[in-house]
Design brief:
The strands form two sheets. The chain has an eleven-stranded mixed sheet with strand order 1-3-2-6-8-7-12-13-11-9-10, sandwiched between helices. A two-stranded antiparallel ribbon has the order 4-5. It starts with a helix and ends in a 9-residue tail after the last helix. It is built from 16 helices and 13 strands. Helix 6 packs parallel to helix 7 and helix 8 packs antiparallel against helix 16 (about 425-440). The chain has two domains: about 1-230, Alpha-Beta Complex (Amidase signature (AS) enzymes); about 245-440, Amidase signature (AS) enzymes. The radius of gyration is 20 Å and the shape is globular. The protein has helices spanning about 1-5, 10-20, 25-40, 50-65, 110-115, 155-165, 180-185, 220-230, 250-255, 260-275, 290-305, 320-330, 335-360, 380-390, 390-395, 425-440; strands spanning about 45-50, 75-80, 120-125, 140-145, 145-150, 170-175, 190, 210-215, 245-250, 280-285, 360-365, 400-405, 415-420. The model has no long low-confidence stretch (mean pLDDT about 95). By secondary structure, the protein is of the alpha/beta class.
Length: about 450
């Protein structure tokens, strides 16, 4: 019964609430039961907020019965990546107790969620401080499709919680793919919105010029519902007409030798479906993509340590070794390298703007492969490759969404990325909604 409730769409949940056929307390209890049943295997949550969540659900139930309707997230259980401030609740940053902090106020995003009547069931696991490394004491979040594999990072706890029916949607952050990678691995929708659309007041920054906050959900429509509250704007994700739609196919990513056969097959099948439905697909490339991943890492390195001034060097011995190495390399990076990377970033933005004058959106595989056993190190070849198809859109600030496009090798999800011009968040979600219809993948086996 809990699965029947926990895997409803947000719209269906809302209809049942307003018809008096289901209560927010029942839905919240269903999510909490699934956390109790499965989180021992997944390690998706750092903190479970059972008592506050049930109190919020009871309040939402009373409000809805009294005719006080706060919108589509009223009474809906959601989760937060644990680098966002929530008053009176410890923020762990995916790290050890030496770094834990208990804020005395909510971040702006949490304020908006509360005002919308959302029920926050807990705070989710992440790679330490969002840097790209698992703290070995905390451990990685495992994948609901195969608990012997990672859910991806750094927003892996949020993606796994949604895929496993522990929350209807979740907040994540994305500096170089940290929403879209776990979305692809866990078979959910993950949107990196237009830069600065979602406020990150109260969140620990990794790199302020690249950080984006966005939704993870089981459908584009559910992602739009969460995005609308986070951005304090109306956002729809209605399937858009495919006939005549101009889609650029990022050929260098599709044809990359590192792309697994299962990922390539799922992507090619989706492209065939889009063509059959009337979309115009044309291979495209941009020379400005050369070196984009190197530029992203060059920008992250010196910006990352800024948020750690209250921790470093006082708590240097408490960081995971790999995270500490990144912080110290950031202090050592020559300023001229950083400035040159920002200059190349400006050239990439201009080239991408020109591309979107010709195309409604561009598509490619989200990642070269499906879920790995463990998260590759940020400074390794695999770590760079994992981000290489998606990091350019952190540099440009354009909206980009990962949507499941089929099952590949070992029955694991493959992700397809859709990017559009800045401000076209509804467009990329609308195309994602169409791909969901063309290429449904079902629930993760754990569910």
């Amino acid at each position: 019964m809990s699965a029947d409730i926990a895997f409803l769409t947000i719209a269906a949940l809302g209809r049942l609430y307003r018809a008096g056929r289901l209560s927010p307390v029942e839905a919240t209890r269903a999510c909490l039961d699934r956390i109790a049943a499965f989180d021992g295997r997944l390690n998706a949550f750092m903190t479970v907020l059972e008592r506050p969540a049930l109190a919020a659900a009871r309040r939402a139930e009373r409000e809805l019965r009294a005719g006080q309707d706060l919108g589509p997230l009223h009474g809906v259980p959601v989760a937060l990546k644990d680098l966002m401030a929530m008053k009176g609740v410890v923020t762990t940053y995916g790290s050890v107790p030496a770094f834990h902090e208990t804020p005395d106020r909510d971040g702006l995003l949490v304020q908006r969620l509360r005002a919308a009547g959302a029920v926050i069931v807990g705070k989710t696991n992440l790679l330490e401080f969002g840097y790209g490394y698992v703290n070995p004491i905390i451990g990685q979040t495992n994948n609901p499709w195969d608990a012997n594999r990672t859910s991806g990072g750094s927003s892996g706890g949020s993606a796994a919680a949604v895929a496993a029916g522990m929350a209807f949607a979740a907040f994540g952050t994305d500096t170089g793919g940290s929403i879209r990678i776990p979305a692809a691995y866990c078979g959910v929708v993950g949107l990196k919105p237009t830069f600065d659309l979602v406020p990150l007041d109260g969140a620990l920054h990794l790199a302020w010029t690249l950080d984006h906050g966005g939704p993870l959900a089981r459908s584009a429509a559910d992602a739009a519902a969460l995005l609308g509250v986070m951005a304090d704007a109306r956002v729809a994700a209605r399937p858009i007409a495919l006939r005549g739609l101009r889609l650029g196919v990022l050929a260098r990513f599709r044809d990359d030798a590192r792309v697994e056969p299962g990922v390539r097959a799922a992507f090619d099948a989706t492209c065939a479906d889009l063509r059959a439905a009337g979309a115009r697909l044309i291979d495209v490339d941009m020379a400005e993509l050369d070196g984009a991943i190197d530029d992203l890492l060059t920008i992250i390195l010196p910006e990352g340590p800024i948020s750690h001034a209250r921790f470093y060097p006082r708590l240097a011995a408490s960081y995971a070794a790999a995270t500490l190495r990144e912080i110290e390399q950031g202090f050592a990076l020559p300023a001229v390298d950083y400035v040159k990377a920002l200059g190349r970033c400006a050239a990439l933005i201009a080239a991408t703007d020109r591309l979107f004058e010709r195309f409604d959106a561009v598509i490619g595989p989200t990642t070269p492969w499906q879920a790995l056993a463990t998260d590759p190190a940020l400074d390794s070849g695999d770590g760079a490759a994992e981000m290489s198809f998606i990091a350019p859109f952190n540099l440009t600030g354009d909206p980009a969404v990962s949507v499941p496009c089929g099952l590949g090798d070992d029955g694991l999800p493959a992700g397809l990325q859709i990017a559009g011009p800045r401000g076209a968040d509804a467009r990329v979600l609308g195309l994602a909604a169409q791909i969901e219809r063309l290429r449904p993948i079902g629930r993760a086996p754990l569910s």
